[in-house]
Design a protein that fits this description.
two-stranded antiparallel ribbon; alpha/beta; seven-stranded mixed beta sheet; single chain; 33% helix; 229 residues
């Protein structure tokens, strides 16, 4: 099983790993795209980057980090990302087997596994670099890389990141309240809880997910599961 998590805008600074080594990353077929995007990002000075990334002066430090993508420190991807989903996931308490089954979608790296060592960066799935969308920059490469995985895939990425590399047979999860309305604010929190519960548990089918204790699932529509919270 492979669970693909969404990235987060918020990330932990620093790290104690060596600078980025593309050849050490999972899904090596994505390296040409990764290198090209890194190269484009580093062509912007900080002021230009802030405009392209549409961030305020308060986040200048994040744009500055993009100038150090190949020289700055790294840390495991699962520790790099922070925020609601990752708080609910609580990576430090997960088993080694759970870590083995987690990956993260990314505008910069396409998709990486939990232990891949990555630097701090700022780049969103909706950003345009030199007027090219992230979807056009990734083309079919993420889809092809994930389709090559001989695994049962649970795709918890948001719509923006799913469009960067759709996986036809992946299971997706919709989160609703008891009135049938889609949960937006706490969507990531509940997906983080679900990922925490099923990672490392030998899940291999939709039925296995539906049988997960502590969760209520209303329906299955094709490969989409609706979780009621």
């Amino acid at each position: 099983m492979l669970i693909i998590l969404p990235p987060s805008e918020t990330k932990a600074f620093g790290g104690d790993g060596a600078p980025l080594d593309f050849e050490s990353l999972s899904f090596p077929s994505l390296n040409p795209n990764r290198k090209e995007i890194v190269d484009v990002l580093q062509q912007y000075d900080v002021d230009e980057a802030m405009k392209v990334l549409k961030i305020s002066e308060a986040l200048r430090a994040e744009a500055e980090e993009n100038t150090k993508l190949t020289t700055g420190p790294t840390m495991p991807a699962l520790y790099r990302y922070t925020g609601v989903l990752y708080d609910a996931l609580d990576a430090k308490t997960l088993s080694d087997k759970a870590w083995d089954q987690l990956a993260i979608g990314s505008a910069l790296f396409g998709v990486v596994r939990a232990r891949d060592m990555i630097p701090f960066y700022r780049l969103s799935g909706g950003t345009k670099l030199h007027d090219a969308t992230m979807k056009s920059r990734w083309g079919k490469s993420i889809t092809e890389a994930l389709n090559a995985e001989d695994d049962f895939i649970i795709d918890l990425r948001s719509g923006t990141y799913q469009t960067l590399g759709k996986v036809k047979d992946a299971v997706t999860v919709r989160v609703e309240n008891s009135e049938g309305k889609v949960i937006s604010h706490f969507n990531k929190f509940y997906k983080g809880q679900l990922a925490r519960e099923i990672a490392g548990k030998g899940i291999s089918s939709i039925d296995d997910i539906l049988a997960t204790p502590g969760f209520h699932f209303k329906e299955v529509n094709g490969n989409q599961i609706t979780m009621v919270v």
